[in-house]
Amino acid sequence: MPDEASPHRTAAVIPAAGRGVRLGPGAPKALRALGGAPMLVHAVRAMAASRAVELVVVVAPPDGAPEVRNLLDAHVLPERTDYVVVPGGDTRQESVALGLKALPDTITTVLVHDAARPLVPVDTVDAVVEAVRSGAQAVVPALPLADTVKQVEPRGGGEPEPVVATPDRSTLRAVQTPQGFERGVLQLAHDTVGSVGEGATDCAGMVEQLGSPVVVVPGHEEAFKVTRPLDLVLAEAVLARRRANDEF
């Protein structure tokens, strides 16, 4: 249970309305099976594993909220898990905004987590929450890049693409979730930047467009995004190892 003496209250919003076409035909990405349960269930469990998180808001496909609610009811979640399911929008921005509307007024810190990152460790979740509670307005977990990155001039049709720059990878980070925010800053970003339609790829990018600071905390290699079939194979292997080690 959350600390009743603390002025901080944390909730997680999980947008799960995307189709995930890169995983191939079938169910929406968040509902694809991983170790016998949908990825969404694992993502909810990951957020609920943090004692700082008192509410999880799942944003379902616009016409799929009852089905998602039934799905979550059918799977074992931590005993203290409090969750609600709301219909989402046509875009990720719209879905997160609808998730924000579902939060009680008492919530001060908001985590936004990809349903396609089902295996994020609780230590990463806690590190993000702690950074926000310590005064950061926006926090993202991230990892240093292992590969050299090339900036190119995009070409279509599989044509060779000219390299225009090689960024210094020591200054680059691969961003993960959950991303954490002071609630007022995230709401302002959705009320202003979101309405302009300049497609930031994540909520932290929207906050950056406000001119507000965003900080990075260490991410984790197991917080990877399940986007393609090979990612699903890796996720199954990680989950199997956790179960063999009685971690899950």
TrEMBL record:
Pfam families xrefs: IspD
TM segment ranges: none
Gene3D superfamilies named among the record's database cross-references: Spore Coat Polysaccharide Biosynthesis Protein SpsA, Chain A
Enzyme Commission number: 2.7.7.60
Annotated site residues (Positions MEP for the nucleophilic attack) in this chain: R169, K225
Site annotation Transition state stabilizer: residues: R22, K29
Single Gene Ontology MF annotation: nucleotidyltransferase activity
Pathway info: Isoprenoid biosynthesis; isopentenyl diphosphate biosynthesis via DXP pathway; isopentenyl diphosphate from 1-deoxy-D-xylulose 5-phosphate: step 2/6
UniProt KW keywords: Isoprene biosynthesis, Nucleotidyltransferase, Transferase
Signal peptide region: none
Catalytic activity: 2-C-methyl-D-erythritol 4-phosphate + CTP + H(+) = 4-CDP-2-C-methyl-D-erythritol + diphosphate
PROSITE patterns: ISPD
Class in the EC hierarchy, top level: transferase
Superkingdom in the source lineage: Bacteria
Family named by the database record: Belongs to the IspD/TarI cytidylyltransferase family. IspD subfamily.
Function, in words: Catalyzes the formation of 4-diphosphocytidyl-2-C-methyl-D-erythritol from CTP and 2-C-methyl-D-erythritol 4-phosphate (MEP).
UniProt name for this protein: 2-C-methyl-D-erythritol 4-phosphate cytidylyltransferase
Species of the source: Streptomyces tremellae
UniProt gene name: ispD
